[in-house]
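Collaboration report, partner site 2.

Our partner group contributed sequences for two proteins of shared interest, and the home lab folded both. The records are reproduced in the order in which they were received, starting with the first partner submission.
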Amino acid sequence: MKISAIQTEDDLIRDALIAQHMDHFDAWWQLAIAWLEPPNLERGGWSGVGRWQLRCADNSTVELYVKRQQNHTRWSLRYPWRGLPTFMVEYDMLKHLRRQGVRVPDVVYAGVRDVQAGRQAILATQALQGYVELTPYCTADNMAAEPDLLAAVAHALQALHAAGIQHRALYPKHLFVRREHDTYEIAFIDLEKAKHMWLPAWQRLRDLRQFMSRLQDWPDSLLYQLYAAYMSGQGKLYHRCGWWWLRWGLKRLNKR
């Protein structure tokens, strides 16, 4: 994949980037930002993310997350020899899910280049406006008191999987929530491990088990409410077998 371009459809952001000469790869690579956490050193390279405030012509600021990596690659049947930078995997997923109506961050800039040291990639996304991390709201007491939130989470997971995507890092910290009047909206972040589903019945349950494994204070009755809301419209046999497999898997992981 060869790409190096501003991606945003917001004219205010685009004009600000061009005015500040942030329309080419090296400007993003040299941008002075601090890592939000130590870079990931797996996959034979490194990968990290920082936060940057972009000032626009109207003196407003836009918060961006800037991801940079070098030689941090994922191999696949489509890219068997050199692989694909994991941020470009995420870029593809973000574009696909947005087309499918799943809420994800807006891509502002994406780029890949080959240098003597290897392959470098950048992905900049706009912070989700008005959203907060789901984790603090994901306690058993809060979810029991907010059935609409539990239903919103279940329906968001349905939408993600209906789009044919397995998240593969489906933890509460990677879901964000925004309340609009009496309804909740859920968005997904960190999709660099995601993949298209080839065995959806199996991969959906793997995602659900991964998510439920972090809900350690939830009683079985509440877990089942989430599962039943997610499984609405599915066949009875798949529903029953899926719940049995989830409960068995969670016990095996020593999470229950």
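Second partner submission, folded after the first:
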Amino acid sequence: MKEIKNVLIVTREYKCSRNPKVGGTGVFYKNLGAELVKRGIAVHVFLISKYTFDIEEEGVKIHSVKDIFKANPLLELLRSFTGKVKALEQIHFKTYLSEKKIISDKISTWIKKNHLHFDIAETHDFDGLALSIPKEIPYVIRCHGSWSVLEKYFGYKKVHKGRVFCEKAAFKNAENIITISKYNETINKSLFAIKEPKLIYNGIDEKFYRPDENAEIISKSVFFLGNVSFEKGAETLIKAFIKLKGIHPEASLHFIGNPNHYPAYIAENIQDMETRNAIHFYGNKSGAEIVQLINQAEVVCFSSKGENFSLSLLEVMAIQKPVVCSAIDSFKEIIQEPVNGLIAGEENFHEKISLIFEDDHLRNRISLNARKLVESKFGIDKMVDETVRYYEEII
């Protein structure tokens, strides 16, 4: 079996010093790239972002080009206009395909100019970016969560038709696909008719995300980690917290992540000042800051309406905190109630949180089991080992 020596990651998201505010996919590829480098594998990232730059971080060489549509106002105008007129739909699709062709040409020019060679490339499913990978490079698509999936299964609105078109075209051409959970595999098989994908669960660094025995826990504190949005269940948790305050007046609610419009939402919709003052927004935080804050939590809630998979959930479980999760398939794939967490419906989050507050034995048991599960099944070393073996099978 041929040894993997050079890997190319083609992505619209990669967390680095020049591009710090990214979602889970960007964090995933940062972690994957760094771990591959530790194994002696050279990693280059071809990034499409807001900026043009070349940097090296944690041994990973990052080449970023400006978003094609943003860099070309005429192409952006054509994309926008044709997307609004049904009769111009085919032109709209061709505009998106031309964007992929431009990216492909840029990748080929960059490779030739720098005398690079890659054994394999990896990219994400959203935007159909696999269409941009030069044909001579074997590649794999990892299903982090396409626009097609977000629209059909998670209720996202106003998804660009060109994005969905490119995603379908990319999957139609793809031979090598990684799914990140059984649920993720099921919905992608249904939507794109993919065959024989490789299931590799996402992994986290359980040595970094770990409990701090000296941390001072904020009594009756409820934490939320992630983008503070309707889709992630922010309103569900706020409504649950109002009910919770009636049972536990000393309770407090803490949001870690981009707050969006929710500070204003709180001011407009909660009249009781005591309840309003018990809700805190910390904004986006670094990994180290997240570990410090979550260690202060008594319980952490994941009230999302839809997820392919959640790295944030694994991070919190690794910090050995009790979690209460919404009753969606991807969470139920990880959480076994009442062994390593609790599952709640939209109307009874406050009841499940109260159980954690009131039962020390339950809280301690599920916290310990949560950490054990991550160590045994969702560590980053396991994920990277399985990824490299799959790369080797492909080439």
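Feedback sent to the partner group on the second submission included the following. The radius of gyration is 22 Å. The mean pLDDT is 96.
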